[in-house]
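Side project, low priority. Logging it here so it doesn't get lost.
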Amino acid sequence: MTGNTKGFVSRVKEKNPNVTVTHCFLHREALVAKTLPKELSNVLDGAVRIFNFIKTRPLKSGLFAILCEEMGADHKTLLLHTEVRWLSRGKLLSRVYELREQLKTFLTAEKSEYALLLADEEWCARLAYMADIFAHLNELNTRMQGRNENVLTSTDKLHGFRSKLALWRQHVEKGSLEMFPLAQTGHSDNFAALCEVICKHLSTLEEKFSFYFPLTSPEAFDWVRDPFSSSAMDNANGLSLQQQEQLTEMRQDRGLKITFSDLPLDSFWLTAAKEYPVIADSAISVLLSFSTTYLCELSFSSLTYIKNKNRERLRAVDQELRVSLSSIPARISSLCSSKQAQVSH
């Protein structure tokens, strides 16, 4: 749908060759997270098979819930993992690890071969690491969501996470798993082999992050983030002479400098556009690019909530979606005051 050759992107560029195209940061991060060595992909496959063995059979699912309640577990059910729900992978692994003792007891009673997986300390240790690393990846994914997210803030978070991967790998090579609490508290007969697998996976993640998110100079847009900083002019070489002139002039505007600390970044540049339109338009074009498809996903989720099975006869949902997605809260009391209630009820 968005291909550069025949898709939407190519059709847009026929009308405007200078248009900027960005691939959703959340989608790219999900592609990175799917990269697993064989030792860890087998763990994920095993966790999914355990889930399917229980959840696809209502009787077994009910018996497992009773067992969890009797054993005093915090949870009674497993969580579904699907490829289209990127956060579900980490949630499934965490839940399986939390209920590993209950699952081992239940699967042993059912005489299932999957009980052997949970009896294997090495498999459980890798499961603990998988739950930890996907919890970190899910946190990164969640932090890049939001109405006020832009390309600059998302890029900063990705660069920060990439730096943490290198730091974690160095600590794992020294035999420390402090950054992975579940893996640290777990028990493994071959700790050195576990650290080797973790280092291999962290190195793969670094490579994939570099592939899907090519490293750009973080100072390139310092003039957008803070036009009054000392490094703003040093990194403005890519701007035209007229843009550099307006940026230089704006840096001496004391009124704007005071306003900069009181306004959000996008509101500041909209204010600056009144006097310095050329440089402000360039900054706004950078901030205007959507880094993620968060708003589209939000509308899909809202539509699913509005048009549920109890309201399946609802035809037009335009007004409901507008109220749901608008950043301006609806004045419900004012709307109700203009209507007369049915006195017969």
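Brief comment: Residues 166 and 206 are 7 Å apart (CA to CA).
Revisit when time allows.
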